[in-house]
Design a protein that fits this description.
With 52 residues, this protein is mostly helical. It has one domain (2-49): Homeodomain-like (Arc Repressor Mutant, subunit A, Orthogonal Bundle). It is 69% helix and 0% strand. It has 4 helices and no strands. Helix 1 (2-10) crosses helix 4 (42-49). The chain starts with a helix and ends with a helix. The mean pLDDT is 95.
Length: 52
């Protein structure tokens, strides 16, 4: 999860690429994990904390 946070916040990689690189397998799995832990989505997290 921490690796996904970091990549979302510091890179322009696609969410699917980040999901696979961080061991989630699919973007849908990462999306579910973000919703359970943060009540948000990876895309929303990037919009809020990602690179300008």
């Amino acid at each position: 999860m921490e690796a996904a946070f970091s990549l979302l916040e510091t890179t322009g990689l696609a969410v699917g690429e980040i999901a696979r690189a961080c061991g989630f397998g699919t973007p849908e799995t990462m999306n579910r994990a973000f919703r359970r832990r943060l009540n948000t989505t990876p895309g929303n997290h990037r919009d809020r904390f990602g690179p300008a």
